[in-house]
């Protein structure tokens, strides 16, 4: 599975949707993922890719990891894999 | 209904090993939060906390006691001794039969769980010490206080996460007010600053890596603390008859449940608890001079709490003072309301309002007088102490100067 497919699988599971319903341009809000769901998704991403994601739920926007869309999450993971690999 | 007064107080926390040093540190705006010293700290992403330092169990407790006292019990016993010594009460006969201990803790013997899981999972041992269960159980601290001081009345432990000690003190208050008990030992303690305890909190992504800055626009999360606060709640006539020094009156309380979310706070749940405490105590909202806030330093709590205060107090919200001493001693989780009650006693008895330290930037969503950075002298007749727990369980105490 590509990084994109893995991320979509994680997000789809969290949103209780079929992976086909999750696209790179989907936002977590569109998919109905709340703050707890977001923290769980980030945990799943860290476990799947063996990376550490900088994220503080008190201020999600200030973290150096863009969670605005599925595509930005994929890009963030690829960057962290290079940095932490 | 009987009146209830506090005739003894004891504590141990990151600011001090007794009430006097803790209040002096609160008045000075001292920060007790620093680098954590614990096993495997380098594997934690959160490495700060309000740790109790220089508290050596060796010398305080003998070998037999040490095998039974988790750190949260050690803290409790030290604080309970200070409180009971100050009250001047000694428990025997009918007084002993009716007086009990109600304490709060969220985790109980967390470091005992941690140490023994390490031993069986990491070190591969197949045997643990025979007293692991009586050492880690949540009621261990209350039980040891009862044994140490001969308290034979109603005794139990309350566990409602971050509101545990406020819920506990509410129960003790009810028992004295109803006439069930002439005196109750109450408060709470917590000792979660071990690898597993911090790791669990870290997972939730709500912890700050640098400081606890309640109400400040740049706040970025909570910081854990540890310690205990213990009080003697006594029936007013009983205290008066023996000429006891009364620190303040406990005049009412209320509890509420948000019934909404397991971690996100609710404005209406918090507001119902504050309004309920005022109603229970027969206090007019204009009389409240100080609120010791729950004030965790998270984005969600602080704005919700301020909105709830504004709802309950209306225009008076801009006149009262509200501060969070968690900025100094950290969040003691199940013991936090007990240590924070000391800030209320200091306000009512000494006319000193503990500050919210680490305050750097006003937040329009927390636009109240949060007593930033420096303690203030003020005459206060009524104070509230807020505690709002994960799980949406809230408990607020109302106190009056005496």
Structure description:
The complex is a heterodimer of chains A (85) and B (402). Helix content of chain A is 51%, strand content 0%. Chain A has 85 residues and is an all-alpha fold. Chain A has one domain: Orthogonal Bundle (Non-ribosomal Peptide Synthetase Peptidyl Carrier Protein, Chain A), CATH 1.10.1200. The mean pLDDT of chain A is 92. Chain B is an alpha/beta fold. The radius of gyration of chain B is 20 Å and the shape is globular. Chains A and B meet through helix 2 of A and loops of B.
Number of helices of chain B: 15
Strand content of chain A: under 5%
* Helix content class of chain B: 25-40%
Q: Which CATH class of chain A is shown?
A: Mainly Alpha
Question: How big is the Rg of chain A?
Answer: 12 Å
Would you tell me the overall average pLDDT of chain B?
97
**Biggest sheet statistics of chain B:** 10 strands, mixed
Low-confidence stretches of chain B: none
User: What share of residues are in beta strands of chain B?
Assistant: 15-25%
* Class from helix and strand fractions of chain A: mainly alpha
CATH architecture of chain A: Orthogonal Bundle
Radius of gyration of chain B: 20 Å
Helices and strands of chain B, in order, run as EHEEHHHHEHHHEHEHEHEHEHEHHEEEE
The helix/strand order of chain A is HHH
Largest interchain contact: A-B, 12 and 15 residues
Overall SS class of chain B? alpha/beta
End-to-end CA span of chain A:
19 Å
Helical proportion of chain A, percent range:
40-55%
Q: Note the overall shape of chain B.
A: globular
């Amino acid at each position: 599975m590509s990084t994109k497919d893995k991320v979509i699988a994680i997000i789809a599971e969290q949103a209780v949707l079929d992976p086909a319903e999750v696209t790179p341009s989907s936002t977590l809000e569109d998919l109905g993922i709340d703050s707890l769901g977001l923290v769980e998704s980030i945990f799943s991403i860290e476990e799947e890719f063996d990376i550490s994601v900088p994220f503080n739920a008190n201020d999600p926007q200030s973290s150096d990891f863009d969670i605005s869309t599925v595509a930005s999450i994929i890009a963030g993971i690829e960057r962290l894999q290079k940095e932490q690999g | 209904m009987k009146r209830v007064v506090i005739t003894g107080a004891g504590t141990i926390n990151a600011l001090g090993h007794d009430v006097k040093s803790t209040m002096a540190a609160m008045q000075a705006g001292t920060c007790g939060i620093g680098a954590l010293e614990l096993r495997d700290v380098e594997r934690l992403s959160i490495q700060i906390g309000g740790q109790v330092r220089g508290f050596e169990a060796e010398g305080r407790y003998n070998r037999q006691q040490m095998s039974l006292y988790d750190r949260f019990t050690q803290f409790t016993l030290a604080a309970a001794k200070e409180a009971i010594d100050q009250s001047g009460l000694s428990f025997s006969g009918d007084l002993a039969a009716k007086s009990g201990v109600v304490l709060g803790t969220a985790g109980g013997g967390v470091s005992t769980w941690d140490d023994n899981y390490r031993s069986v999972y990491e070190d591969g041992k197949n045997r643990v010490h025979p007293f692991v269960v009586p050492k880690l159980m949540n009621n261990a601290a209350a039980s040891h206080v009862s044994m140490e001081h001969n308290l034979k009345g109603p005794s139990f432990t309350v566990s409602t996460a971050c509101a545990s000690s406020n819920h506990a003190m509410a129960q003790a208050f009810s028992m004295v007010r109803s006439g069930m008990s002439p005196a109750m030992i109450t408060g709470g303690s917590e000792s979660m600053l071990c690898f597993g305890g911090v790791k669990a909190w870290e997972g939730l992504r709500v912890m700050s890596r640098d400081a606890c800055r309640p109400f400040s626009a740049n706040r970025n999360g909570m910081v854990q603390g540890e310690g205990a606060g213990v009080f003697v709640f006594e029936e007013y006539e009983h205290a008066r008859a023996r000429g006891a020094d009364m620190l303040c009156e406990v005049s009412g309380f209320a509890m509420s449940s948000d019934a909404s979310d397991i971690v996100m706070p609710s404005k209406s749940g918090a507001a119902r608890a504050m309004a309920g405490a005022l109603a229970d105590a027969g206090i007019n909202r204009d009389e409240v001079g100080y609120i010791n806030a729950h004030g965790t330093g998270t984005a969600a709590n602080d704005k919700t709490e301020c909105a709830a205060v504004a709802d309950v107090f209306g225009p008076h919200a801009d006149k009262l003072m509200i501060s969070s001493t968690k900025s100094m001693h950290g969040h003691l989780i199940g013991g936090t309301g007990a240590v924070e009650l000391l800030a209320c006693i200091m306000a009512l008895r000494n006319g000193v309002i503990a500050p919210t330290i680490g305050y750097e930037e006003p937040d329009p969503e927390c636009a109240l007088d949060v007593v930033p950075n420096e303690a203030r002298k003020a005459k206060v007749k009524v104070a509230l102490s807020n505690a709002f727990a994960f799980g949406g369980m809230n408990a607020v105490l109302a106190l009056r100067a005496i």
